[in-house]
Amino acid sequence: MALAVDGEFGVFEGRTFALIHPIVMASLFLYTLWAGYLGWQWRRVRTIQNEINELKKQVKPTPVTPEGTPLEVPPSQIELKIQQLTEVYILAFVAIVVTVIFLISLVFLISLAEKSAPCVYFFSIFYKL
Predict the structure, then answer these.
(1) Distance (Å, rounded) from C-alpha 30 to C-alpha 20?
(2) What integer pLDDT is reported at residue 10 of this predicted model?
């Protein structure tokens, strides 16, 4: 015997409601992939400074004139690579800081929801850190 006879529960007994589980599972899978990708990026940020230091050891000193002023020479490939890696490092650091600030604000909002809006709190418990 069916639990909902004559459409008693409306949309909650049909195919629409049955799609919630696969959507949630697919979302969790995509979140897992995203977390792995962010972990790989974090590893890259941690090791990029070592790569920059190794490249700095290979940079030749800038030639100077007899008066002691440096000559205008175009940057070498190594110096361009150092500049590129430094920009990536700074951008990644900024992205991580922004993400941490966002997560801290979410924790604050969840604590407010816990006290003021029980229905929001019910859905927010899935996102607690």
Answers:
(1) 15
(2) 61
Instruction: Give the residue-averaged pLDDT of 51-61.
Output: 90
> pLDDT tens digits for 1-19?
455 556 666 655 666 667 7
Helix (H), strand (E), coil (C) string for 74-104: CCCHHHHHHHHHHHHHHHHHHHHHHHHHHHH
Q: Which residue has the higher pLDDT, 122 or 43?
A: 43
Structure tokens at 125: 């418990």
Q: Which residues contact 128 (CB under 8 A, 6 or more apart)?
A: 107, 110
CA torsion sign for 70, 73, 74, 75 is negative
Residue pointed to by tokens 């890696």:
85
**Residue 39 to residue 47: CA distance in whole angstroms:** 12
Domain residue limits, the chain? 10-57+72-127
